[in-house]
Design a protein that fits this description.
61% helix
Amino acid sequence: FPQHNELLLLLRHHLCPLLHKSLSERPVFPLTLRSTRVVFLLLKQFSNELPTEAEVFLMLLIKVISGEHDTENGSSHSRPGWMRVIALEIIRGLCTDAELIRGIWQRYDAQPNGSKVFGSLVTALNRLASEKPSLLGVGTQVMGLGVAPSYNAEGASGYGMESVAGMVANAASATVSGVVGMMGTEAGLSVVGSSMKLQCIDQLDKADAPGIPESYIYLLAIQCLVSLVEGFASLVLPLYNTITIVRPRAAGEAIVHAPPALDLPTLPEGDHGTVQLRIVHDMLESGWPALLAALSFYIATNISDELFADVLGAMQGMINVLGVLRLTTPRDA
């Protein structure tokens, strides 16, 4: 397809409008399921060739996971919960592709008048995290870190930057026995108890939506956040090690301290690694408040040992990447 303009025109002028119309109308499970599967393929394979169409589909998916009502054709109606789950499964698949996520930032967020696709995504994931705190077992007893939760009338997280920083600091200073005790309680969110045997988007034989665990959507959100951070770390940390590699210290030589953070302006212009580092730097400089707030919220909820380790590892990876890129304010937060 990418080598044939005629086939790309078919995608742009016939398939994409059909898919958009299908996803904008009142959802029917079999049709919506198949339409979103095709959208996923388009986003994975043709984002470069169809930037405008990809932007429309990405913003539509983000709108769905945000829980916004559909206002197409002048009428407003809420989407069913299964459509939100399908959209998040699509987003999860996209978040595991770090190169694709960086490309999304370059094409949209990095442009002066471009859509803030990446920014909207992390904001939506952050809002979703604290949508139903009681479902995840959030409270002063469960949080166990000396930070009481605060929520506004809509149920959104009331964490300011000071409270987020305090939560992380308290988590870091918590005793080992306290953390183990917190992890030992029955989890409100776990891979075993919250996931589906077969993800919703693969249930092509169903005429109606299957039963979906209520907490499944929050499991998907955690997996999206962890994948995003892992994508940053998998690029930045190996490049940092390559740039700052130091030979072993010989006998009698002075102690070599840890290498400093990268100074991006001094790196070679036009080098592929430098370009990618600057992209991640800009992405984190823009998106760190939402990422930190969401991860801090989840780490203070009643999640399973496995998910706790995943979220804690993501926070550690994010701190390392922020430090390497000399983003001191978010690193210290």
